[in-house]
């Protein structure tokens, strides 16, 4: 019953998120943007721009696609954006890889083209450029650069100031040393339905070497494939196979995973015109060897993955992905078979990843104690103060802002539960950097200039716009009483009414090295 209730809550949340995102559809027909006004707009979050924010494992918390907000765990190179109207022709690809211990993907390389052929490539904290392009936030000389601050990342802007991209990096411990994320800003009247940021059918956005939208060089492609294969996860699409020409997946087949039973697998075509290729119907379907144990049908199997069964083929002698000659005796509704080759239509959202409701099952902390969803929520809200009003299990969000913070909280929980204990704080901080109030080119460090005072006002008063503070006083109190922890843990401050007033240093008292409790709430 608990799982069923959780399922109903989660389905209601997804339905609301999709309804909210439908407002974006009207924009997608536009692709003739006026590129003359961008240079006069300083704010990256100005209403003139549409946003596409991708971070974590990976989550798209804003997009101009009909899909709205979603997780996308596609493997290999995917086109995220292709804008012809502004920026001198803007393209962006991301290479996504799966880690051995993860059921999720991570963005490991980002390729960007703009300004009529200039290119920027980001691999972790390393940045390289070709041609004339504005890139800030780096150290080093020449075309090979390093991020000055990985958390802040680098800011890339087209010559007409219409295309703006921030790419950051999260440093991790273990075999996977980092992951990348990005925030894209494009004029509203220039967006289209190309790329993950705008497309309805995500599986169509996979690009392979040799196609026009494939930005990476062959040397970069080989390096990416080799690095990803060494991590031990699913073999990335379109990469050279390390074992006799066999492949793990086809573009858009990620929705089939994770498989629940040993030996289940996706059937991948070895050459054009073979049985699997015909069943795939120009990439619209995925063929999967499913173990049904005479208790379910292919229709059930596909439905459980938010897909629809369109065909079935018998297999030979229980061999996975083998096919009998002639018509199949089974159909989509047959339940009398131990195993079958099911043909499932690819859903538009083709790589949703594991169900978030169960992502913390069987997880432990650094001491070996059970690590639950409640622990993940607490950590996420501590490191991402703007999430203190978000809910993990809200039954439908009221508006887009509420939908956004609920989605980010759910994404953060997914990230920290999926990570090794020593990486959880870094990933929760990364969720904190998705604060929609912060422009992508603004520093992620809360202790820069007067940002700490502004953050505390938002956290401690219901009317933050009327809240004022003394910059020197706030920073002095931070330094004397809370050291640096207040900059990362403001969500742990107690919240009081706006009628209360902070008048002295005694207003802040650190009760531990990470917990600062406010005895009163309003800065004057």
General description of the model:
The chain is α+β, with helices and mostly antiparallel strands and 524 residues long. The chain has three domains: 2-230, no CATH class; 253-345, no CATH class; 451-518, no CATH class. The protein has nine helices and 20 strands. The strands form four sheets. It has a seven-stranded antiparallel sheet with strand order 3-2-1-14-13-12-9, covered by helices on one side. A hairpin with a 6-residue loop joins β4 (76-83) and β5 (90-98). α5 (373-383) crosses α6 (400-418) and α6 (400-418) runs antiparallel to α7 (424-432). It starts with a helix and ends in a 6-residue tail after the last strand. Residues 1-31 form the signal peptide.
What attributes characterize this protein structure?
single chain; 524 residues; alpha+beta; 7-stranded antiparallel sheet; 9 helices; 20 strands; 21% strand; globular; disordered N terminus; disordered C terminus; VWFD domain-containing protein; signal
Brief sketch in words of this structure:
The chain is 20% helix and 21% strand. The chain has 524 residues and is of the alpha+beta class. α5 packs across α6, α5 (373-383) packs across α7 and α6 packs antiparallel against α7.
């Amino acid at each position: 019953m608990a799982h069923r209730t959780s399922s109903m809550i989660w389905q209601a949340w997804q339905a609301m998120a999709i309804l909210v995102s439908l407002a974006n559809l009207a924009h997608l027909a536009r692709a003739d943007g006026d590129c003359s006004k961008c240079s006069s707009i300083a704010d990256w979050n100005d209403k003139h721009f549409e946003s596409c924010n991708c971070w974590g494992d990976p989550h798209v918390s804003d997009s101009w696609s009909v899909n709205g907000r979603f997780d996308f765990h596609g493997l290999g190179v995917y086109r995220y954006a292709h804008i012809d109207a502004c920026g001198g022709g803007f393209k962006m690809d991301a290479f996504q890889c799966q880690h051995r211990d993860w059921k999720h993907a991570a963005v490991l390389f980002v390729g960007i083209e703009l300004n009529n052929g200039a290119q920027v490539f980001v691999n972790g904290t390393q940045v390289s450029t070709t041609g004339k392009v504005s890139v800030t936030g780096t150290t080093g000389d020449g075309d090979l650069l390093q991020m000055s601050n990985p958390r802040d990342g680098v800011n890339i802007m087209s010559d007409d100031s219409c295309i703006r991209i921030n790419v950051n990096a999260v440093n991790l411990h273990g075999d996977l040393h980092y992951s990348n994320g990005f925030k894209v800003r494009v004029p509203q009247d220039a967006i289209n339905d190309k790329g993950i940021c705008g497309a309805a059918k995500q599986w169509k956005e996979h690009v392979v070497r040799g196609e026009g939208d494939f930005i990476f060089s062959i040397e970069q492609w080989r390096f990416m494939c080799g690095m990803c294969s060494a991590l031990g996860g699913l073999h990335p699409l379109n990469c050279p196979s390390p074992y006799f020409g066999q492949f793990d997946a086809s573009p858009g087949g990620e929705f089939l995973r994770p498989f629940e039973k040993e030996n289940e697998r996706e059937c991948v075509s070895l050459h054009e015109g073979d049985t699997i290729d015909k069943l795939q119907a120009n990439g619209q379907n995925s063929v999967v060897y499913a173990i049904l144990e005479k208790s379910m049908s292919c229709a059930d199997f596909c439905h459980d993955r938010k897909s629809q069964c369109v065909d079935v083929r018998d297999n030979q002698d229980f061999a996975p992905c083998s096919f009998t000659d002639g018509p199949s005796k089974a159909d989509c509704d047959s339940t009398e078979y131990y195993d079958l080759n099911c043909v499932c239509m690819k859903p538009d959202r083709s790589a949703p990843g594991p169900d978030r409701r169960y992502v913390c099952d069987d997880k432990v902390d650094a001491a070996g104690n059970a690590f639950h969803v409640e622990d993940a929520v607490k950590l996420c809200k501590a490191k991402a103060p703007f999430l203190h009003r978000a809910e993990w299990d809200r039954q439908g969000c009221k508006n887009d802002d509420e939908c956004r913070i609920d989605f980010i909280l759910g994404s953060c929980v997914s990230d920290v539960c999926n990570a090794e204990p020593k990486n959880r704080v870094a990933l929760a901080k990364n969720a904190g950097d998705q604060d929609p109030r912060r422009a992508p080119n603004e520093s992620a460090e809360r202790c820069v200039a007067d940002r700490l005072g502004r953050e505390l006002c938002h956290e401690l008063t219901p009317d933050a716009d009327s809240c004022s503070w003394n910059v020197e006083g706030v920073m002095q109190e931070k330094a004397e009483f809370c050291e640096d922890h207040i900059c990362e843990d403001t969500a742990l401050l107690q919240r009081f009414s706006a009628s209360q007033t902070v008048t002295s240093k005694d207003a802040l008292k650190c009760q531990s090295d990470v917990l600062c409790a406010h005895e009163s709430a309003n800065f004057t």
